[in-house]
Amino acid sequence: xxxxxxxxxxxxxxxxxxxxxxxxxxxxxxxxxxxxxxxxxxxxxxxxxxxxxxxxxxxxxxxxxxxxxxxxxxxxxxxxxxxxxxxxxxxxxxxxxxxxxxxxxxxxxxxxxxxxxxxxxxxxxxxxxxxxxxxxxxxxxxxxxxxxxxxxxxxxxxxxxxxxxxxxxxxxxxxxxxxxxxxxxxxxxxxxxxxxxxxxxxxxxxxxxxxxxxxxxxxxxxxxxxxxxxxxxxxxxxxxxxxxxxxxxxxxxxxxxxxxxxxxxxxxxxxxxxxxxxxxxxxxxxxxxxxxxxxxxxxxxxxxxxxxxxxxxxxxxxxxxxxxxxxxxxxxxxxxxxxxxxxxxxxxxxxxxxxxxxxxxxxxxxxxxxxxxxxxxxxxxxxxxxxxxxxxxxxxxxxxxxxxxxxxxxxxxxxxxxxxxxxxxxxxxxxxxxxxxxxxxxxxxxxxxxxxxxxxxxxxxxxxxxxxxxxxxxxxxxxxxxx
Length: 483
Description:
By secondary structure, the chain is an alpha+beta fold. It has helices spanning 6-62, 67-79, 112-120, 177-228, 243-284, 289-304, 331-336, 344-352, 368-373, 407-451, 458-472, 477-482; strands at 84-91, 96-99, 124-130, 138-141, 151-162, 165-175, 306-314, 320-327, 338-340, 356-358, 379-386, 389-399.
């Protein structure tokens, strides 16, 4: 698709609109001017014809139209120059009395307009348009057509009377060549005026658009480009109080909101990283398996905002997932829950080794029965993986409030699960080392006791008495272990 600049689009639109308006105005103005000059021509011809008719009627009042009076009429008509192209005077029987070309005098005038004027005793008036190169062949028209440049003539047939009785008619054709020249000047003047007006209107409108449309758009575009490059401190400078001003205010408000949201996201990201680091330090601070599981679950619940959660570990003997730590779950559910690999949400995650995010509106036929039975609105389940080995899963269910879990929650819990799996593996290795250490110590003690029957069992009894006293004193678990 061809990219067309907004200025070009608006410029072409304005140009077409002004051209259309100017064309309509020129058309009606020219037509009005043509009608005006045509009426003036008709008035002039009517005055001339009226003078001839009055002269004839006055002559008939004194008697017949004699040769001298006919000669004066012809002299008057000839004085009009080339404007009169046809002139005849006929009597009541359409017999030609006077003719400009001196032809047909005494003969009957067979012109239909003359017959009609004598028959109806009224003035007949027509405008004729003649085709070039076809002699006198023409057609009657109403007025000048806008593009019609054919030669025209005005025909007038006026009856004259003597003593109230129809005495004959005056038949005149006048050329409208001079009127055509006037109309040509009207065309030229109107075209020049319309062109000048068109240019000025376009210029003023273009200046107005540049000042009140293009300039605000350029300012807004520049500000938007800087925002797109990540500079959310940019604000659009308000240059007007119209709709563009409202748009600038909205843009600035939107930019401020985006800046605030980005700051919140960055703060949340820093807080998440800090939380992961804190959880990592907490996980590294203890090697007690039970305490470690509680720390993992509390961190997952706290950051994700879940209502319930659990840590399920893989029992190597049965091959099933069992709950080792829980939050918000019924004690009976904790004791009795055991899932095979591939079964349910936790079993699927443990088998596939992929984290799973279930949110409201997700329709998964595999988990719908579980979601319905356990009233799960949304859930996240991530695997606990050590190298290529899955040792369990971390579950959180039902985010507090109307919100649901999102991919940020999923990523955080996945990162937490990685840290937790390593910590659990370290705790398990520590427990193995501890068990081996105490087994070695116990074996040495039993070997020493075996040499003297009197002291046999002494170490075991001292250990039991010491542990009982430490527990009675309420010492911490680590202190009891040291004793």
